[in-house]
Structure formats: C-alpha cells, structure tokens
Specification:
Layout: H1 12-15, E1 46-47, E2 83-84, H2 104-107, E3 108-116, E4 120-127, E5 133-140, H3 147-162, E6 172-177, E7 181-187, H4 194-201, H5 206-225, E8 228-229, E9 238-240, E10 249-251, E11 258-259, H6 278-281, H7 288-303, H8 313-322
Antiparallel strand pairs: 1-2, 3-4, 4-5, 5-7, 6-7, 8-11, 9-10
Protein name: non-specific serine/threonine protein kinase
Function: CIPK serine-threonine protein kinases interact with CBL proteins. Binding of a CBL protein to the regulatory NAF domain of CIPK protein lead to the activation of the kinase in a calcium-dependent manner.
Organism: Nicotiana attenuata (Coyote tobacco)
C-alpha cells in the first residue's frame, strides 16, 4: 500500500516465483510434507525445496539492518517455500500405509501431469467404473528417507479423512500403494489457485474479499474444533472447483498439518515465509498461528501484496517479528 493510501498491485513475479524443479500447476498441485512437533527438542530449520541447509533464525532482541523498500512496491524475493525439520536419513523399503491396497491402475486411468513437487507428481486420472475425473498425487517412496517422512504421509491421509464432508475441504477418494509410490486420489479442481485469481485481478473488492474470508475462517473453525492445525495457509493452498466467478473454494495442502489438543504448544518451525506467524518463529505456538496466516491472506486479497516482504527469507522473518504496518 502506497503512502497516499491507494492500493498498489504487483505482478506475480514481484513477490512470488516458481522454481522449475518445484513448479506447481494451478490445478491440484502437489502439497508439501509436514512435520510433527516435539515439545523438548530444538529442531534445525531447512528450506524444503532444496537440499537441507541451515537457516539462521532472526534475533529476538536486536534487529538487523533491513533491506531498503522502494515506493513502487516489494522487491522480488526468493520463492516462498515450506520449511520443515529433517531427521536422520535412511532409505524406506517397508510399507508406508501398513495395509494392503488395490492396484491403482485397476481402478483408474492415468492422464496428464497437473503438478510437480519435491516428493512426487500430481496427475489427472479417470475412474474406470464411473468416468469421473480425479487428481492423483503420487508420492515417490524413494524420497521418504526418514521415519518422520513416512509418518507425515500417513498423517496427511488421516487428516484428509478426518475432515471429510466439509464443503470447503478437498475430498479424498482413496489411497493406494505399490512398490515405488503412494498414490492419493482426491477431488479434481479445475478452477485454479486463489493466488492466480488475485494476480489476475490485482486485488479484490471488500465485499468479495469478505466472502472469501468467511469461507477461509469457516474452514479454520472446523479444523480447530476437530483438533487439526493446518500450519500452511496461503492463497496457493486454496483451489476453485471451476472457472466460474462464484466457484466453490476448496482447501488443500495438509502436508504440514498436525493433530493437537487444547493447550498444546509446538516448537517446530513450519509454514511459508510470507504467512508464518511470529509465534512460530519464536517456537511456541498453537492453533492461533493459523489465524495469523488467514489475516495475511485477507491483507493480500485487499491489496494484492503481502504485508511482510524482503529480499530473502531471513529478511521476511525479521519483518514478521519486528515490522510495522501503516
């Protein structure tokens, strides 16, 4: 937002780019893996879209020099990515789902690729018995190197079943496993990401933003009442069912989600830099971190730009912790 109070919109390239090796489709893209919190350990932080490397946490007492801001809007930052803790390595050869499943290709015909992620690929598929279209996310087992990775896959599927029936949560059709991959078949959404519609519009009107916000917080209310924290809310994790203006909005991206009980506090730093709550960076948070992320989305709906931005992730973290909004 400029100093004169006018809304200022920028193109997608100004504050969100997609690297070739982690590109996502606007239709049922691949979601990131999650990580269970541990109450006593102080986890390492790594950027998930590239080989593990240490991230320096922002200092809580002394603020480092911040990148200069330009009047015309945010500088182009690095791609917002999910962050998670990585455990000790070890190739997985046993069953992930811990039960026998049918052969995916006996029930579905696999079509074009919809998206590519770190752990696997999402394809369009058609159920042979009904001709109905679905999206199939195939997670490569060779990339599940730790017990935590395997548990993340199991928990993501469990949470999707746990939230089944909500009109604004992506529905899961089933999960299959073979020698090379775990296949999660889910509802197919052809309308694209909420993020892309924001870019197309520049920003939303207050009335339309209010409608979308009502949907988003409605999903949060249901998740939290059922003991689920999403932990990666962002416009990229909301899909429209179709291209219509009044299309239903669906929540995806439960790879970082986790079950919780009232009073639980977590210390693992997960999420996406623009949307992560200060409590997450301080390593003590609960479901209120989702509410912060929803607030960031509302800001972007109305302005077309994120409230906290910098040239790199460390700078974004500093802005989230210490930045002032006009």
């Amino acid at each position: 937002i400029s100093k004169n109070g006018l809304f200022q919109s920028v193109s997608a390239a100004m504050w969100r780019t997609r690297a070739p090796d982690d590109s996502r489709s606007t239709t049922n893209g691949d979601s990131a893996r999650g990580e269970t919190a541990e109450s006593e350990k102080d986890p390492d932080l790594v950027v998930q879209s590239k080989p593990p490397e240490q991230i320096t946490m922002p200092k809580s007492e002394q603020k480092e020099e911040e990148p200069a801001k330009k009047e015309e809007g945010p500088e182009k930052p690095k791609k917002p990515v999910q962050m998670k803790r990585v455990g000790s390595a070890g190739l997985r050869t046993d069953s992930v789902l811990q039960k026998k499943t049918g052969n995916l290709k006996e029930f579905f015909s696999i079509g074009k690729k919809l998206g590519q992620g770190q752990f696997g690929t999402t394809f369009k598929c058609v159920e042979k018995a009904t001709g109905k279209e679905y999206a199939c996310k195939s997670i490569a087992k060779r990339k599940l190197l730790t017990d935590d990775d395997v548990e993340d896959v199991r928990r993501e599927i469990q949470i999707m079943h746990h939230l089944a029936g909500h009109p604004n949560v992506i529905s899961i059709k089933g999960a299959y496993e073979d020698a090379v991959a775990v296949h999660v078949v889910m509802e197919y959404c052809a309308g694209g990401e909420l993020f892309d519609r924001i870019i197309q519009r520049g920003h939303y009107t207050e009335r339309k933003a209010a409608e979308l916000t009502r949907t988003i917080v409605g999903v949060l209310e249901t998740c939290h009442s059922l003991g689920v924290m999403h932990r990666d809310l962002k416009p990229e994790n909301f899909l429209f069912v179709n291209q219509k203006e009044d299309s239903l909005l669906k929540t995806i991206g439960f790879g970082l989600s986790i079950f919780f009980k009232p009073g639980d506090r977590f210390n693992d730093v997960v999420g996406s830099p623009y949307y992560v709550a200060p409590e997450v960076l301080k390593k003590r948070y609960g479901p209120e971190a989702d509410v912060w992320s929803a607030g960031v989305i509302v800001y972007i709906l109305l302005s077309g730009v994120p409230p906290f931005w910098a040239e790199n992730e460390q700078g974004i973290f500093e802005e989230v912790l210490h930045g002032d909004l006009d």
